[in-house]
Amino acid sequence: xxxxxxxxxxxxxxxxxxxLSCAASGRTFSRYNMGWFRQAPGKExxxxxxxxxxxxxxxYADSVKGRFTISRDNAKNTVFLQMxxxxxxxxxxxxxAADSGGWAVNTTPPATAYDYWGQGTQVTVSS
Length: 127
Hints:
By secondary structure, the protein is an all-beta fold. Helix content is 0%, strand content 46%. The strands form 2 sheets. Strands 2, 4, 5, 6, 9, 10 and 11 form a 7-stranded mixed β-sheet that branches. The chain has a 4-stranded antiparallel β-sheet with strand order 1-3-8-7, with no helix packed on it.
């Protein structure tokens, strides 16, 4: 069992930055591939970024490439999402998720494949 707790959300002006954190409980954090997803009002949950266990590979949605950076610290059981050059369309609840499955290179699973989810943190970008 893994519990995930996100933090770092808030209100920011367009062009600003936020850094989200997701702290995981337990001693097996390094066994999980981690992902960030987001869900805006009235929209489906969408993939944002993911990072494999070893942090060798990172994956991003086209909409955030060049602006967001995912990273992890396995010693601190934490995954991060650095968000720069934020846009109003980035407004959403952001969720982190953990997946114990294996990933092929250049492939990330759908949201339904993830085993554990956090409760989410709200990010609001004003224009």
